[in-house]
Amino acid sequence: MGAAALQKYIGSLGGIGASGVGSSSSYSPKEMNKDIMPEKKTNTYSNDNSMVLQNVKTFKDVKGCDDAKKELEEVVEYLKNPSKFTRLGGKLPKGILLTGAPGTGKTLLAKAIAGEAGVPFFYRAGSEFEEMFVGVGARRVRSLFQAAKKKAPCIVFIDEIDAVGSTRKQWEGHTKKTLHQLLVEMDGFEQNEGIIVMAATNLADILDPALTRPGRFDRHIVVPSPDVRGRQEILELYLQDKPVANDVDINAIARSTPGFNGADLANLVNIAAIKAALTAYHESGHAIVALNTQGAHPIHKATILPRGSALGMVTQLPSQDETSISKKQLLARLDVCMGGRVAEELIFGEDNVTTGARNDLHTATELAQYMVSNCGMSDAIGPVHVKERPSVEMQSRIDAEVVKLLREAYGRVKRLLKKHEKQLHALANALLERETLTADEINKVVHPYQEEPQFSFQDEEFALT
């Protein structure tokens, strides 16, 4: 399926790379800064039975289904100027049924017709008609069409109509009454009254024949999955307001995603954006810990651009040549190693930490082992240089001390990042916007949120692998 091209895309959007921040393909962040993931707008309704959608679309918002749009252009013309048709005795179909696989844009297409024509758009999902009480569905159908007649010309759209119009549900008495009422309403108005009834389903083969006969839903329009040109148009639409690396080849991504529909492509872009955010927070975690920990090396730069197998990197350089390293400096290195993993946990939730920190954890574990076994920096083990193959008992004690050092570092970093959370958010947003920041630029970003002097006493590159 063109995994290489997809990985290149996901690794380039907004500065994301190929590893570091994890190899999983989906994330559900606990909270996300609005600058990174804008809040999803929900549909609002007017007071007219809470059925008129206000945030309708236009044809420019619909990509990848040009043939279906062309078939529906006459509906737009009719709604804009009904007299043009009625004067010549022309009539449009009462009902238009949009069929196709889930995610191909059937509902979006119906909204776009209303938006193009500038008419009210009455929306109901088929499942909303039914409840546990008999007769509720039929009453809601009547209310829907009564409201539509007052607002004509307009569009009445029933999504997932198979929920009430399926032959498989004929044995359910209340569902049968709802379907019967829908048929009565469609038969009860003339084709020149300005009401266009549209419905969508991905299960057209199970619809009751009474729905699809002439005079009801007699116009069937298939909304297929987009071809390569359509996929490219959809990707361009979703990416138009997102920061994209210059070397991203949208056409290559479109060619690599056969079978993807609009919803799949939207999800692909969303995953890429989340990964970009996760990378930025991961690297920011390293940087904020380095800035606020005594004994940590000064930061040289931070980037979320991929480099080798790493998604991003924070580079630290010592301020002078080192002949020996203090325990404080080694503990600071442990803390900086933990910064990325802890930042992921704080921002995205414990269940959404990724494998991106595996190299950081490897480095931290090796460092803790070195401190305990070689440098005598453990009270439990003492000032001993442990031989290469220690006894089972000694190895067990060493392992316990290593775990203790790592847990203590994790706790310190968690407290530090909670304290400097504003710095973390500010730096992550800056990395998403500019991708690479020098030490001076980082200091300018975090300075407004600085509560106390930063510490950076003293060549490590904490790369994500």
From TrEMBL:
Q: Does the keyword Metal-binding apply?
A: yes
Listed under GO biological process in this entry are: proteolysis
The chain positions of domain AAA+ ATPase read 92-227
Cofactor(s) listed in the protein's UniProt record: Zn(2+)
According to the UniProt entry, the coiled-coil residues are: none
MF terms from GO for this chain are: ATP binding; ATP hydrolysis activity; ATP-dependent peptidase activity; metal ion binding; metalloendopeptidase activity
| Listed InterPro entries | AAA+_ATPase, ATPase_AAA_core, ATPase_AAA_CS, P-loop_NTPase, Peptidase_M41, Peptidase_M41-like
What's in the keyword line of the UniProt record? ATP-binding, Hydrolase, Membrane, Metal-binding, Metalloprotease, Mitochondrion, Nucleotide-binding, Protease, Transit peptide, Transmembrane, Transmembrane helix, Zinc
Summary of the function given for this chain in its UniProt record = Probable ATP-dependent zinc metallopeptidase.
Protein name in UniProt: ATP-dependent zinc metalloprotease FTSH 11 chloroplastic/mitochondrial
